[in-house]
Protein: N-acetyltransferase
Amino acid sequence: MEHPKTFYTKTITTPAGDVTIEGPFAPERLAACEFHQGLKAFRQPEKQQQALIGIAGLPEGRIIVARVGDLIVGYVTYLYPDPMERWAEAQMEDLIELGAIEVAAPYRGGSVAKSLLQVSFLDDAMNDYIVISTEYYWHWDLDSTGLSVWEYKEVMKKVMGSVGMETYATDDPEINSHPANMLMARIGTRVGMDSVERFNRVRFKTRHLF
Ligand SMILES: CC(=O)SCCNC(=O)CCNC(=O)[C@H](O)C(C)(C)COP(=O)(O)OP(=O)(O)OC[C@H]1O[C@@H](n2cnc3c(N)ncnc32)[C@H](O)[C@@H]1OP(=O)(O)O
Structure:
């Protein structure tokens, strides 16, 4: 499968100032930018920047960033699921995972996350994919937001729902280990029935759907 990527850019006004949302970014461009020290939800900022540079270089990989000048203040990643996870087992070339979305604390609450997703899906090529997102509450920044897991779950539903991602049932034990966790997905308009059925089968391994 080809993975054509079309670059889009847009500037939004937030309470913290103007922020440019754009991508997919090339690895070289990412490497030339600074990385906000508040981008530490998943790894130390330096390590996360290196991980994003790696993803940007993958054929299917996409990094959309939020930047102020040359300072990256937010990002969202898309890539094939980790080979160790069940979502990779079906070996679907048209299934990619929204792996991480993060906005540095001073820029939160200004629609940066929603804009990162909106700019991601301006690229019509995204309609060739099933995009999944596995939401585990232990990845959420409950401490600095002060939100409960239930309030945070609602924030994630709003962010993901803004581009048509919906909650999907699954029998995945890790997702079902806590009721705040969820599987979200968006099935692109050109995804075939065969892929949808394979996705349904990978969601439920312990019973036959059809
Ligand atoms: C697959 C994964 O990556 S799961 C992990 C998700 N990432 C994290 O938890 C990392 C740490 N957190 C963050 O980086 C940010 O808080 C994010 C990404 C969750 C949200 O980013 P933001 O730019 O603040 O979100 P944005 O401003 O677009 O808000 C989206 C909606 O949620 C609401 N919202 C955002 N933060 C809050 C909050 N703290 N309290 C209440 N509502 C909130 C907004 O009001 C908005 O609602 P609306 O659609 O009704 O207007």
About this structure: Helices lie at 27-32, 45-56, 86-89, 112-120, 142-145, 149-161, 173-176, 193-203. The first helix runs from residue 27 to 32.
